[in-house]
Amino acid sequence: MRKGFTSGSAAAAAARAHARFQMGHGPVTHVSITLPDKSTMELPVECHPHGAMVIKDAGDDPDITHGAAFWAQVELCEHDPAIHIVGGEGVGVVTRPGLQIPVGEAAINPVPRAMIEANVRGEIGTDRGATVTIRVPEGRRLAERTFNPRLGIEGGISIIGTTGIVEPMSLQALVEAIRCEIDVQLAEGHPITLVPGKIGEKHLQAQRPAAQTILVSNAFGEALEYLRHRGVRQLTIAGHPGKLAKLAMGFYNTHSSASPQAQDFVAHVLGLIGTYNTVEEICQAHHEAFDPLATRIAEQVVKDWGFARVEVLLFDMPGALLSESIGGCTPFIRPT
């Protein structure tokens, strides 16, 4: 699969190209940037007096910023040797604590900031400074399809990347977003609640309107591992039993390609006789019978991951609460 380059690399390349232009070297069509590991990568650029632009190429990764234009404008300063990096149109602003960037600053992560500074410095030298403005005209629209609104990053996308290169692995991008959301929830003191997706979130918040949730998709293993790493002792897991039963089966990647269907297991745990096509069919026929499954899920997660207390809520597809159960051996502080 074809690799691409990160939004941080796109911003650094645009900034380097415009810094070179501002130093009087004329517009360029390609620029070589230095990556965090000190290797280099050449990217195509479009350079103008008012700024330089790079089109993001994410390779074969399903990155929502693929094809977006990343602009940089460099203004030289002879009296201040520092390089100041600011966000313009389409670059989000951090509004909640717990991320790598302080509240109130542009959502340009530390590694991209260092890349931008190093590459601009490579053009302007050490005797002068500059203000570098990064903008992404489509950023506000694209951000609606990211985790940014949930993370408290408003007004646009984040400029991210740790290596400068995009590996075609969408799971890794999801895991990084989950970890960021966990960090934010912990920084704000919220109880941790994991849900597979929007349906589980909607059903839970109908029961507990103030609940703050973390969407993990199928990456329960990665989420639970990071929670353990952060020292979390108790959590809530909510969703449909067809998905969450797989946790009791020992499958923490709940994607259908990595785990079996759960209807036979659910029927066995509930002591049912007969054949069922789906877990939802069981939900509708035996909605009062799910306490043993919720308990089994909670106890299995406690056993496998070492948490002190795990609460599990199960909902059917229309949103009816089938069961809530707690596993573990210490008092549970119930989320509001």
TrEMBL record:
Q: Provide the protein name.
A: Cobalt-precorrin-5B C(1)-methyltransferase
* Family from the record: Belongs to the CbiD family.
Please give the organism. Desulfurispira natronophila
Q: Which UniProt keywords apply?
A: Cobalamin biosynthesis, Methyltransferase, S-adenosyl-L-methionine, Transferase
HAMAP family xref list:
CbiD
Q: In which pathway does it act?
A: Cofactor biosynthesis; adenosylcobalamin biosynthesis; cob(II)yrinate a,c-diamide from sirohydrochlorin (anaerobic route): step 6/10
* The reaction(s) this protein catalyses: Co-precorrin-5B + S-adenosyl-L-methionine = Co-precorrin-6A + S-adenosyl-L-homocysteine
Domain of life per record:
Bacteria
Q: Name one GO molecular function term.
A: methyltransferase activity
Q: Which gene encodes it?
A: cbiD
